[in-house]
């Protein structure tokens, strides 16, 4: 896998509280335009490294689709941490389009919540590659 460029020497000695750098936002690896994106992601990461960014890179996938997790091909780019968002989960009290009522989005039952989280973990780990060992990260 063509990993993100490594941090420059001595970069860890810099001060700050940034723990990760989002390389892109919802640039899907296979869902929209699957051509030339690996080079684009690598170039974005390289530019960030050249500007002095030393923390791990992450990607924010639009859903749990597995973009930029890496592959067996050394020419394919992968981020240090995979992230995804969950726009389609509505918390209790959510308002969708300004028309929601308490009856539409009732309070969550604890068992239902645990089941949902377990399902997310199963889906995440099912992506394979680096998702087998990385933390579940929702930026």
Helix content: 10-25%
Overall pLDDT level: 75
For the largest beta-sheet, the strand count, sense and barrel status come to: 3 strands, parallel
Q: What order do the SSEs take from the amino end to the carboxyl end, as H and E?
A: EEHEEEH
Low-pLDDT regions? none
Q: Count of helices?
A: 2
- Can you tell me the overall shape? globular
The N- and C-terminal alpha carbons lie at a distance of 23 Å
Secondary-structure content class: alpha/beta
Strand content: 5-15%
User: How many β-strand stretches?
Assistant: 5
Radius of gyration: 18 Å
- Strand order, largest beta sheet: 2-3-5
Q: What do you see in this structure?
A:
This protein is of the alpha/beta class and 139 residues long. The protein is built from two helices and five strands. The chain has helices spanning 37-50, 110-125; strands at 2-3, 21-22, 57-61, 77-78, 81-84. A three-stranded parallel sheet has the order 2-3-5, with no helix packed on it. β2, α1 and β3 (57-61) form a beta-alpha-beta unit. The protein is globular.
Q: What's the short story on this structure?
A:
This protein is α/β, with parallel strands linked by helices and about 140 residues long. The protein is built from 2 helices and 5 strands.
Give the SSE map.
Elements: E1 2-3, E2 21-22, H1 37-50, E3 57-61, E4 77-78, E5 81-84, H2 110-125
Parallel strand pairs: 1-4, 2-3, 3-5
């Amino acid at each position: 896998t063509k990993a993100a460029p490594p941090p420059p020497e001595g970069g860890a000695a810099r001060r700050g509280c940034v723990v990760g750098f989002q390389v892109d936002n919802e640039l899907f690896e296979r869902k929209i335009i699957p051509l030339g994106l690996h080079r684009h992601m690598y170039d974005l990461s390289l530019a960030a490294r050249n500007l002095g960014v030393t923390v791990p890179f992450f990607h924010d996938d639009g859903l749990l689709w597995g973009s930029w997790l890496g592959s067996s091909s050394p020419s394919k780019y992968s981020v240090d941490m995979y992230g995804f968002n969950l726009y389609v989960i509505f918390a209790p009290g959510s308002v969708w389009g300004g028309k929601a009522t308490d009856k539409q989005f009732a309070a969550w039952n604890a068992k239902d919540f645990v089941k949902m989280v377990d399902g997310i973990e199963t889906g995440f780990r099912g992506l394979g590659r680096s998702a087998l060992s990385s933390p579940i990260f929702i930026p």
